[in-house]
Amino acid sequence: MRYWLMLLGTACGTMNSARPLDQGKHAVGITLGGPMVEFGGNYVPLPNAVLEGRSGMAPIANRNWDLNYGLNLTALAFDQAGLHIGGSYQALRQNGNIPAISITNRVFVYSNHFSSNTIDESKGFWLNDEITLTASWKLGRQMVYTGFSQYFDLSNPTPTISPFLGAEFFNTGQNNGFALQFEVRNYATGWNPTITSAKWNTPFGSGGFGGNLGLVYRFGGTK
C-alpha cells in the first residue's frame, strides 16, 4: 500500500518533457490530474496539482537540455512537502516523419516532517526516481508525443512501466506564449492496485489509468 501511495504522489501530472527548451528560455505551468478512481459512480482523476518550471541550459553535444523543478500543491494541503527536480535531454531531433527523442530523469522528494498529525517516530523522507523516454512529432505549433516512464521507489526498486500518449495544442506563439497540454497514461502497467479504500480505473487489466491537463507559459530566449 505504501508503494502505491508513493506512486500516486510522484506520478501525478507534470509538464511534458518531449522537447527540452532552448538555452535561456523558461517555462512555468500548472498541471492537474492523475490516476482515476471511482467517485459517485463515475471515474474521476485524483485532484493532484503540480506547480512547476523549466529552464533551458547551454547545449550538450549540440543538443538542448533543460532543468525541471516543481512543487506538489495537493501534498501541501495535507501537510506533506513534495518537490521534484531533474532534467531532460534531446537525444535526437525530428527528421521528417522520424520523431524527436528525449530522455528525462527526475527525483521526487516527499516528507511528512511538517505534519502536525504525525508522530515523530513515523516522520521521514521518501524518494522516487523517474526515467522517461519520449518520442514527439511537431506540425507547426501543435505537437503529439508518446513514450513510457519508469518510477523507482529508491527504498524498494520495482518495475512500474507507465506508457503515455499526449498532445500540446492552442499555442499562442511559435516559440513563446501559452499552450495547453493533455495526456493519458496507464500507471504501473502489470501491477494490480492494493489500496482497498479506492477503486482504480484499470481498463487494461492492470495498473491505474488516468489523465492530466496542463497550462504552460514559455518566455525568454533569443528573440
Q: In words, what does this structure look like?
A:
By secondary structure, the protein is mainly beta. It has one domain: Porin (Beta Barrel). The chain has two helices and eleven strands, in the order αββββαβββββββ. The protein has a ten-stranded antiparallel barrel. The termini are far apart.
- CATH architecture annotation: Beta Barrel
Number of domains: 1
**According to CATH, what is the topology?**
Porin
CATH class: Mainly Beta
Largest sheet: 10 strands, antiparallel, barrel
Please identify the structural class as seen in this structure.
Answer: mainly beta
Descriptive labels:
ten-stranded antiparallel β-barrel; 223 residues; mainly beta; Porin
Brief account:
The chain is mainly beta and 223 residues long. The protein has helices at residues 2-10, 73-77; strands at residues 25-39, 42-45, 49-56, 65-72, 81-92, 100-111, 125-139, 142-153, 161-169, 177-187, 208-220.
SSE blueprint:
Layout: H1 2-10, E1 25-39, E2 42-45, E3 49-56, E4 65-72, H2 73-77, E5 81-92, E6 100-111, E7 125-139, E8 142-153, E9 161-169, E10 177-187, E11 208-220
Antiparallel strand pairs: 1-2, 1-3, 1-11, 3-4, 4-5, 5-6, 6-7, 7-8, 8-9, 9-10, 10-11
